[in-house]
């Protein structure tokens, strides 16, 4: 028959386990002092463990960087790399030893924790600290029209406040402003700031764009934190600022990397928008230039032979007649027809009696002018 080990109950520390005290001693106060001292020892022990774990994590991070650097130097063939390789290997060896030391300290701390006597604060813990009522989740999703209308209504109401938030620079100022205006912590604010960044980049206000981009990433990080915690964004934005202000290196690097990537995306979108606007402007100008036949005079002029281009540059009809006479009649008719359809050449209306003719009226006009010149 297996025996039950009751030795675990031999080391229980309870502040009020002694009922007999000296009459001159305030027993309740004594018990409170004992309890307070024990709590302080527990907090100090917990802090020590946290510091060891934090130091171990930092050591492992530095070791990973050193190993990566050593690998890169080992693959390099330059003389400088070979000189640096020995230093990198020594640093890697040093960090491995440091990692083992921290692991030993963490193991020792765990053993000490197991040996600590139980007390009234560790004998039992709450099984439930809150009540949860199961409710059917709302599975309906907003349509694109509803989202667009919601965004439009929100911006019309809070546009001034969103712009003010976008211009803030300090963490404390941003946190205080959101504390005073928690309704701004939402997707609509983030979306408006993105559009605002693109508009500023299009207007070539680059420094201002980078400032608003910073606040845009602040809002997006808050929203992502809320999703990961499955809470309302308005209830967790203080956690973001607390984390970012404690100089958590990895979190700060992630924030900066996302900020730089976002600014590059903004520049790309702004460039596309500018190119689109330029194309639309060029097309509008082209439509204004179109002649009666629907052709662009610039395009027609560029397609003409150099000798005909020179005639139009000089605005010399006699030179045009001479150039036409030297060309193949079919080619000359085609060029003159395109010139008149683009408005580059306006024919003399006196030669047009309203009847259809087999010959091109423009070509005939130039040819007749040439014959009259020869008769003279």
Question: How does this structure look, described?
Answer:
With 376 residues, the chain is an all-alpha fold. It has a two-stranded parallel sheet. The longest helix is centred in the N-terminal third of the chain and has 49 residues. It starts with 11 loop residues before the first strand and ends with a helix.
Shape designation: elongated
Low-confidence stretches: 349-376
Helices, by number, come to 13
H/E element sequence = EHHEHHHHHHHHHHH
Structural class: mainly alpha
Biggest beta sheet summary: 2 strands, parallel
How many E strands? 2
Tell me the β content: under 5%
Averaged pLDDT: 77
- Termini gap: 142 Å
Gyration radius over CA: 42 Å
Helix content: 55-70%
Strand arrangement within the widest β-sheet reads 1-2
């Amino acid at each position: 028959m297996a025996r039950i080990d009751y030795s675990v109950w031999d080391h229980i520390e309870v502040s009020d386990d002694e009922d007999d005290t000296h009459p001159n001693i305030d027993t309740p106060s004594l018990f409170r002092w004992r309890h307070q001292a024990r709590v302080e020892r527990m907090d100090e022990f917990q802090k020590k463990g946290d510091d060891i774990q934090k130091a171990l994590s930092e050591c492992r991070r530095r070791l990973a960087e050193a190993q990566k650097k050593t690998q890169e130097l080992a693959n390099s063939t330059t003389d400088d790399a070979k000189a640096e390789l020995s230093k990198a290997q020594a640093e890697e060896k040093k960090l491995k030893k440091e990692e083992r030391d921290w692991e030993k300290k963490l193991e020792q701390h765990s053993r000490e924790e197991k040996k600590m006597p139980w007390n009234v604060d560790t004998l039992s813990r709450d099984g439930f600290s809150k009540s949860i009522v199961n409710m059917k989740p709302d599975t309906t999703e907003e349509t694109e029209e509803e989202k667009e209308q919601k965004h439009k209504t929100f911006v019309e109401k809070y546009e001034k406040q969103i712009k003010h938030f976008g211009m803030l620079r300090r963490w404390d100022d941003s946190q205080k402003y959101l504390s005073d205006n928690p309704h701004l912590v939402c997707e609509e604010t983030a979306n408006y700031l993105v559009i605002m960044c693109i508009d500023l980049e299009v207007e070539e206000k680059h420094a201002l764009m980078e400032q608003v981009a910073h606040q845009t990433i602040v809002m997006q990080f808050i929203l992502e934190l809320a999703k990961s915690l499955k809470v309302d964004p308005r209830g967790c934005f203080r956690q973001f600022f607390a984390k970012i202000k404690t100089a958590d290196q990895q979190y700060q690097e992630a924030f900066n990397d996302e900020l730089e990537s976002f600014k590059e995306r903004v520049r790309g979108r702004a460039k596309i928008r500018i190119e689109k606007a330029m194309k639309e402007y060029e097309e509008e100008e082209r439509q204004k230039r179109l002649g009666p036949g629907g052709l662009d005079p610039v395009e027609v002029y560029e397609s003409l032979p150099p000798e005909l281009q020179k005639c139009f540059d000089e605005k010399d009809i006699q030179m045009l007649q001479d150039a036409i006479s030297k060309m193949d009649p079919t080619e000359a008719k085609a060029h003159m027809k395109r010139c008149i359809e683009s408005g580059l050449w306006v024919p003399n209306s006196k030669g047009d009696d309203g009847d259809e003719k087999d010959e091109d009226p423009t070509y005939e006009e130039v040819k007749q002018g040439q014959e009259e010149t020869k008769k003279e």
